[in-house]
Specification:
- 16% of the residues lie in helices and 11% in strands.
- The protein has 2 helices and 3 strands.
- Strands 2-1-3 form a 3-stranded antiparallel sheet.
- The model has no long low-confidence stretch (mean pLDDT 95).
- InterPro entries: DUF1272.
- It holds the Pfam family DUF1272.
- This is DUF1272 domain-containing protein.
């Protein structure tokens, strides 16, 4: 199951699990759309392709909440 990280690792912007706009690589590194575009849709950590992260809503989000651990590297 996806960890659904709460923020962009690059700029720290909030990325709620129930909203579109987050991009992830196969290791679940998470970035906002602006940072993903600036990185040419390549993860700076593993060089893997960044893809749209699916959303998690309603009962699924309640049963499996998003992570609260922020990953932004200041």
């Amino acid at each position: 199951m996806l960890e659904m990280r709460p923020d962009c690792e690059c700029c720290g912007v909030d990325l709620p699990a129930d909203e579109a706009g987050a991009f992830i690589c196969s290791f679940e590194c998470t970035f906002c759309a602006a940072c993903a575009e600036a990185m040419d849709d390549r993860c700076p950590n593993c060089r893997g392709e960044l893809m749209d992260r699916p959303t998690r809503v309603g009962k699924a989000l309640m049963a499996s909440p998003a992570s609260m651990e922020r990953r932004h590297k200041a």
